[in-house]
Specification:
The chain has 2 domains: 3-56, no CATH class; 69-203, Ribonuclease H-like superfamily/Ribonuclease H (Nucleotidyltransferase, domain 5, 2-Layer Sandwich). It has 7 helices and 10 strands. It has helices spanning 39-44, 53-56, 105-119, 132-139, 142-148, 162-173, 189-203; strands spanning 3-4, 9-10, 17-18, 23-26, 33-35, 69-77, 82-90, 95-103, 125-129, 177-181. The strands form 3 sheets. The chain has a 5-stranded mixed sheet, sandwiched between helices. A 3-stranded antiparallel sheet has the order 1-4-5, with no helix packed on it. The two termini are 27 Å apart.
């Protein structure tokens, strides 16, 4: 059951700050806490059963080669669930954003990446995200397990956000797409930009 956070911290799924008083749940592994809206994501990524260093902060180099187009993506949600927004942007000035009236942070993170790779057809493309939920799905190949098990997670429950994962995974399977993690709110100007765009898109949904 969710309970209010007594101390500030960082969500083990979305890597975003946990504010004092915000509804959270603890991972069943006993290692860390997650936003109430991120709890299902923790199970889908296996964090509910075990915790690994890569689950907390994926830092492996991307594998795409050649003239790589980098796109930064981000999702935001007020209340989680609540009104939210997604955004993507490239260093040459291209960008996109949108939102939903009732959503979660994870859904907006997935949609941001999906919208980016569907809109930007250049390959190879590197998606730069501060969401371990999105990055670990591909860097740690969680998606392969989901497909092999018929879209159920390690707890034998349906994988959350399948409607958004499926088109993104389909794009990934076509090749030329990779993901890399960036620490959120760490001074990366492009990460800061897409964060701002996603927050603004979410506000427009209120």
């Amino acid at each position: 059951m969710p309970f209010p956070a007594k101390y500030a911290g960082t969500c083990k799924v979305c890597s975003r700050p946990i504010a004092v008083g915000e509804p959270i749940t603890s991972a069943s592994s006993g290692k860390g806490y997650v936003h109430e809206g991120c709890a299902q994501g923790a199970l889908d990524l296996g964090l509910g059963e075990r915790s690994t260093p890569t689950a907390a902060a994926p830092a492996a180099p991307a594998t795409v080669d050649g003239d790589v187009l980098r796109v930064w993506t981000d999702g935001a949600c007020s209340g989680n669930p609540g009104p939210g927004g997604w955004a993507w942007a490239t260093q040459d000035g291209r960008q996109g954003s949108g939102g939903a009236a009732h959503t979660t942070n994870q859904r907006m993170e997935i949609q941001a990446a999906s919208e980016a790779v569907r809109t930007l057809t250049q390959r190879p493309i590197l998606v730069v995200s501060d969401s371990t939920y999105v990055v670990n799905c591909f860097r740690n190949r969680w998606w392969q397990g989901w497909l092999a098990k018929g879209w159920v997670n390690a707890s034998k429950k349906p994988v959350a956000n399948r409607d958004l994962w499926e088109p993104l995974i389909a794009e990934y399977q076509r090749g030329g797409i990779d993901f890399t993690w960036v620490k959120g709110h760490s001074g990366d100007p492009m990460n800061d930009l897409v964060d701002q765009l996603a927050v603004e898109a979410g506000r427009a949904q209120r």
